[in-house]
Amino acid sequence: MTQTILKLRQTGEPVLRQPARPLGLDEIRSPEIQRLIVAMRDTLRDAPGVGLAAPQVGYGIQLAIIEDRAEYQQAIPPEQLTERGRVVLPFQVIVNPKLSIIDPTTRLFFEGCLSVAGFTALVPRAAKVRVEGLDEKGRVLLIEAEGWQARILQHEVDHLQGKLYLDSMLPRSFMTTANHARFWKDKPVCVVCAALGLLETLA
Ligand code: ZN
Fold this sequence. Notes:
Layout: H1 25-28, H2 31-46, E1 51-53, E2 63-68, H3 70-73, H4 78-84, E3 89-111, E4 119-134, E5 140-146, H5 147-160, E6 175-176, H6 177-184, H7 189-195, H8 199-202
Antiparallel strand pairs: 1-2, 2-3, 3-4, 4-5, 4-6
This protein binds zinc ion.
Residues 113-115, 155, 159 line the site of zinc ion.
């Protein structure tokens, strides 16, 4: 089967900064949206990434997908997976999401975005969230999530509101993924914060 890999829009494209519009039930079930969902899934797996929102491929609609596959986690030390609360997540379509915070305790980790290619930064996120929305068939969807899933959901719902992680990151931690891998990847977040002069920001 031929795959459709969509062009990933980069920061600066207007569609990434505009609030996306909600989808109607008939629209969700339409062949156009069903095809877009498949193309977004193929694009996300090709990247690869763990989440993708429709504005990132040029569509200003409230549609996002998440998926965290076992193969993505193989190269990551188990203690890092545990620290991040990162577990395998099946492919999930989320339409018209409303996010509420269940536990506002801040979790701080490096985060990236396919629309800010080549960069990463420390981004504070709430520890636990609830997302209410619809799935790809227009059925009611309710997700309660913590750990990495909560982070992904906050990131994707932000996209649908015209926000990027750049808006909430700790600016001094913004760096290339190459430098992240070279200097910081295996260090605990508290050590990174101290070295980057971020402890006062956090206090
Ligand atoms: Zn993103």
